[in-house]
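Subject: sequence -> C-alpha cells, single chain

Hey, anyone have a minute? Need the predicted structure for the following. Not urgent.
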Amino acid sequence: MKSLTAHIAFLERELGRADTELETAPLRAVLYMAALVDARRNSLIKVFAQQLVAATKPKTLALVACMRKPLTMLNVMVRTETGD
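Reply:
Had a minute. Here:
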C-alpha cells in the first residue's frame, strides 16, 4: 500500500504538473494549518518540532516535518490495523 505522501510526491514528479493542477494545494493547506496547531498543542508533535529546531533545523523545515508526521502515523495505523 502506497502512503499518501508518496502518492502526492509521485504525482508531482512523474506528471510534471504544478501543485494547483493536481489539486493538492487544498490538502497542503489543511496539513499546514493542522501542523501549526499541532506544533503548539499536541505534545508528541510539539516535542518533535522542538527537537528539530534544537538540532539547528530551520523552523519551516520543522513545520513541514510536522505536516508529514501525522500522515506517517496514520499510514502505520492503517498498515497494522490499529486504532490507537
